[in-house]
Recover the amino acids of this structure.
């Protein structure tokens, strides 16, 4: 058995995952990268996308959608600071399209710049999510 | 001397008050547990964020062109004071303590000739601060509709603070909240949000074992990561403050309501004694009247 990578996914609300994996694929801002044991220390921002966790080499991946954040690989392991993370199996396509409609509505209803920027961001990551699900 | 009926009414009224305070205490206790769990669950993120920020920040801080969120604007003339309090009363000295600390800070800044702007989160603090600093309060964030504070509640506040900072409306932002220690102890805390305060001592200790002497690769770049991280840090700090505050509020309410329940109990006891004495006195009086009436015959 090859050594395992210790990884943690943390959202502002709680520690989502603290486990071992053979490989974790992270959607970095400059492109996806796979974190494996003994990876060189690095730090990268994350774009909205899917984190794939391979518990065993060549096994099935557990997929988590993260809404931006930061990944840090240190000698102790991988830490993902996610703004928000969603288990992809929990996502309901119908529910999602309703949410997208909501986001579009709030975008057109946005009164000032702050609200508009927030609505745009919301919409952008919802769309990203729906592309992955479908 | 109040009549027997008056006493009975008072005893009953204190009893129903005691029932209410008792119920509030129980509610606060169960809410406290939830709030405490939420505050504890949020800790890992904030801690790791702090670690990363400390490591990165120290390196970049002194370079020219460092983000003003980290290095400051170079002046401290306009100060933003964010005062986080509760939405409901009946929680002992909780709001008063936070406001007292904030007020001392504000007065000190005013004495030093700074311009002070106040942002209130929670209306209880707003009500108290309004009396003295009406013209300085720029906004009130009402969270009374929010049951469990989520990151989504802290984010809009942070976004607004950051937008104000970008427009150059203030130089330094400080957050006042009560840090939760136990149900009995809440520590009023003052925390500087902008420019980000870096814990230099902690970093020196950490640097050795955390980085392990390794050189990090930064993707896209150190500056880009910091630019992404610093605004998020503000949101996280506010979120953390709000969570700590929520737990503290419930703790303070629980203690206050416990005291109130005990006081009501004492009051009922002493009223009952008075009631019984009065009743005895009445019986004695009636007996004397009957006896002396019989003797007169």
């Amino acid at each position: 058995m090859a050594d395992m990578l210790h990884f943690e996914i943390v959202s502002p609300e709680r520690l989502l995952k603290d486990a071992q994996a053979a490989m974790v694929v992270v959607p970095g801002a400059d492109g996806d990268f796979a974190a494996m044991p003994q990876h060189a220390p690095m730090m990268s921002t994350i774009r909205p996308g899917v984190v794939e966790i391979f518990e065993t080499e060549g096994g099935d991946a557990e997929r988590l959608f993260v809404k931006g954040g930061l990944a840090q690989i240190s000698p102790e392991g991988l830490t993902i600071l996610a703004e928000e993370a969603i288990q992809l199996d929990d996502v309901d396509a119908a529910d999602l399209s309703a949410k997208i409609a909501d986001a579009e509505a709030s975008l057109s209803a946005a009164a000032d710049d702050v609200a508009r920027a927030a609505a745009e961001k919301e919409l952008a990551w919802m769309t990203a999510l729906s592309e992955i699900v479908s | 001397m109040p009549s027997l009926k008056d006493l009975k009414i008072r005893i009953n009224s204190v009893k129903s008050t005691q029932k209410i305070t008792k119920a509030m205490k129980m509610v606060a206790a169960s809410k406290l547990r939830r709030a405490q769990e939420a505050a504890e669950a949020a800790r890992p993120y904030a801690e790791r964020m702090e670690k990363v920020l400390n490591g990165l920040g120290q390196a970049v801080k002194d370079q020219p062109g460092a983000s003003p969120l980290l290095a400051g604007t170079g002046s401290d003339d306009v100060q933003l004071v964010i005062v986080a309090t509760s939405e409901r009363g009946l929680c002992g000295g909780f709001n008063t303590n936070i406001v007292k600390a904030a007020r001392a800070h504000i007065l000190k800044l005013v004495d030093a000739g700074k311009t002070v702007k106040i942002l209130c989160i929670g209306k209880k603090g707003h009500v108290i601060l309004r009396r003295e600093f009406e013209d300085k309060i720029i906004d009130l964030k009402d969270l009374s509709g929010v049951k469990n504070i989520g990151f989504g509640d802290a984010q809009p506040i942070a976004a607004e603070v950051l937008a104000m900072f970008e427009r150059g409306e203030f130089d330094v932002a400080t957050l006042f909240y009560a840090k939760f220690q136990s149900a009995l102890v809440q520590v009023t805390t003052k925390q500087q949000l902008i420019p980000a305060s870096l814990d230099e001592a902690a970093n020196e200790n950490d640097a050795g074992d955390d980085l392990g002497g390794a050189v990090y690769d930064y993707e896209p770049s150190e500056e880009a990561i910091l630019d992404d991280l610093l605004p998020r840090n503000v949101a996280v700090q506010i979120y953390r403050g709000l969570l700590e505050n929520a737990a503290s509020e419930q703790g303070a309410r629980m203690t206050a309501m416990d005291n109130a329940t005990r006081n009501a109990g004492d009051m009922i006891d002493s009223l009952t004694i008075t009631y019984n004495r009065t009743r005895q006195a009445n019986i004695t009086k009636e007996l004397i009247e009957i006896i002396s009436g019989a003797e007169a015959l």
The longest strand of chain A covers residues 15-21. Chain A touches chain B through 29 residues (CB under 8 Å).
